[in-house]
Design a protein that fits this description.
With 389 residues, the chain is of the alpha/beta class. The protein is built from 14 helices and 13 strands. The C terminus is likely disordered.
Length: 389
C-alpha cells in the first residue's frame, strides 16, 4: 500500500512538514509496512517559501527591509536548490502579519520592502523568481515595489510621491530610466489564485481593502486612486490594467507585475506541487491524504487540498482531507476527487488547545482514517497472519 501525504500547514500550529510527519506516524500505527511518501505543499500563501526551500534543498537568507508602514523589519527570502531561483513571500516584508490590528492602514501601507527583497536577490545572482503574494497589508498598486527598484513616480512638480495608496492620485509621470535593468533579464512567476481586476466593485480596494483595515470611505478613495494609477500606467506604457484579471492581487501588485515585469500568474498550489514533485510522487499510489487548518467553501477556489485532489484525480487516486475545522460548502470538493473530509478534533477543545495538540490530533485522525479506508486489507492481513501461525 502506498500513501502520498501532501498537506499544507495548519496556520499558527504546525508547518506542512510537521503535519506530514504527524500523519505518517498515524498511518504507520495502522499499517507498519505501508509505503509513505511525504510531499508537504502550500498554495502561495504562508509556508510557500519554507515548503519550496525544503523540497529543493535550498536555503533562506535574512535581510533588513522597509516594512509596510516604513519601519525596518527583518525579512527572509529563499534561494532554491538550483541557486538561481528566488522565492519571496510578500508577507515577509509587506504583510498584515507585521502589524498590530490597530495599525492596519492600507492608505499608507507600502510594497517598498518587497521591492527591496527582489533587489537583494538580484544582487545575489537570481534571475528566476517565484512571488507568493498572499497576506499583504498594502493597496498601493505595487508603486512602492517599483520605487525600490528604481522607478520614479512623479507628481506635477516632478517630485517623488510618498508611500501608500493614498498617494497614487498625485502621479503624473512614470520614469523608468533608472529602473533596475536586471528585471528585464529575469522571469517572475506570481503565485496567486486571485483573478480580481484592479478596480471597480470586484477590484483590489473593494474586495480586499476591508480585510486590511479600510473603512468604506477609504475603499472609495483607494479605488479612485487606483483608477488614476491605472490611467497613468496606460498613458506611459500602453498597458491597460483596469479590468485585467489578476491585476487586483495583493492590493494591485498583480497589475504592476503584469505591466512592468516579464511575468506570468499561476495558481499557487500548482507552482508548489510542480517544484515539490507531487505528480511524480503520485505514481502507483493507492491513496492521498492532504489537509489544512480550515476547510470550507473557499477551499474549492484553489487552495491546497483542492489542488492536490485535482492532481490525484488525474491518476485515479482517491483523496482524503484532514482539517482543523470543517465549514460549510465542502460538497464542491467531491467533484475534484475528494472522497471525504474529516475534522481532527476528537472532542470539545478551545482553539488554543487544538492548536497545541495538532500533531497528536493529526496522528490519531490519520490512523483512524487509514483503518477505515483500508479495513478489508487489514482484515485480510490478520487472516493471513492467523493462518501462518
Amino acid at each position: 500500500m502506498k500513501v502520498v501525504i501532501a498537506p499544507d500547514s495548519f496556520k499558527g500550529s504546525v508547518s506542512a512538514v510537521e503535519a506530514a510527519e504527524a500523519i505518517e506516524k498515524g498511518i504507520k500505527k495502522a499499517f507498519a509496512d505501508a509505503e509513505t511518501v511525504l510531499v508537504p505543499v502550500a498554495d502561495g500563501g504562508e509556508g510557500t517559501m519554507d515548503t519550496l526551500v525544503a523540497a529543493t534543498g535550498g536555503r533562506k537568507k535574512q535581510v533588513a527591509v522597509t516594512g509596510p508602514l516604513g519601519r525596518t523589519v527583518i525579512a527572509q527570502y529563499g534561494i532554491l536548490g538550483d541557486e538561481q531561483t528566488c522565492v519571496i513571500e510578500m508577507a515577509e516584508a509587506s504583510g498584515i502579519c507585521l502589524l498590530a490590528p490597530e495599525e492596519l492602514n492600507p492608505m499608507r501601507a507600502t510594497t517598498y520592502g518587497t521591492g527591496e527583497l527582489i533587489k537583494q536577490a538580484l544582487n545575489e545572482g537570481c534571475r528566476s523568481f517565484i512571488l507568493a503574494v498572499g497576506g499583504s497589508a498594502t493597496n498601493d498598486g505595487g508603486a512602492g515595489m517599483l520605487q525600490a527598484l528604481g522607478a520614479q513616480l512623479l507628481d506635477k512638480e516632478e517630485k517623488s510621491i510618498s508611500y501608500g495608496g493614498v498617494e497614487l492620485h498625485k502621479v503624473t509621470k512614470i520614469d523608468f530610466e533608472d529602473f533596475d535593468p536586471r528585471i528585464i533579464e529575469s522571469k517572475f512567476v506570481i503565485a496567486s489564485d486571485v483573478q480580481n481586476p484592479l478596480v471597480g466593485p470586484d477590484g483590489a480596494s473593494a474586495v480586499f481593502g476591508p480585510q486590511k483595515g479600510a473603512t468604506p470611505e477609504m475603499v472609495e478613495i483607494l479605488d479612485r486612486n487606483l483608477v488614476h494609477w491605472a490611467d497613468q500606467v496606460e498613458k506611459w506604457t500602453g498597458k491597460r490594467l483596469h479590468n485585467l484579471a489578476g491585476a487586483g492581487a495583493a492590493g494591485g501588485i498583480g497589475g504592476a507585475f503584469q505591466a512592468f515585469f516579464p511575468s506570468e500568474m499561476k495558481r499557487g498550489v500548482d507552482v508548489v506541487t510542480e517544484y515539490a514533485g507531487l505528480h511524480e510522487a503520485l505514481a502507483g499510489a493507492d491513496l492521498v491524504i492532504t489537509g489544512e487548518g480550515q476547510v470550507d467553501f473557499q477551499t474549492a477556489s484553489g487552495k491546497t487540498p483542492m489542488g492536490v485532489a485535482q492532481a490525484a484525480k488525474k491518476q485515479n487516486i482517491p483523496t482524503l482531507i484532514l482539517a482543523g475545522s470543517v465549514g460549510k460548502g465542502i460538497d464542491a470538493l467531491y467533484e475534484y476527487g475528494v472522497v471525504a473530509v474529516s475534522s481532527i478534533l476528537s472532542g470539545p477543545l478551545t482553539l488554543e488547545e487544538a492548536m497545541k495538540q495538532a500533531p497528536q490530533l493529526l496522528e490519531e485522525s490519520a490512523e483512524q482514517l487509514i483503518r477505515t479506508f483500508f479495513h478489508q486489507e487489514l482484515v485480510q492481513k490478520k487472516e493471513v497472519l492467523h493462518y501462518e501461525n
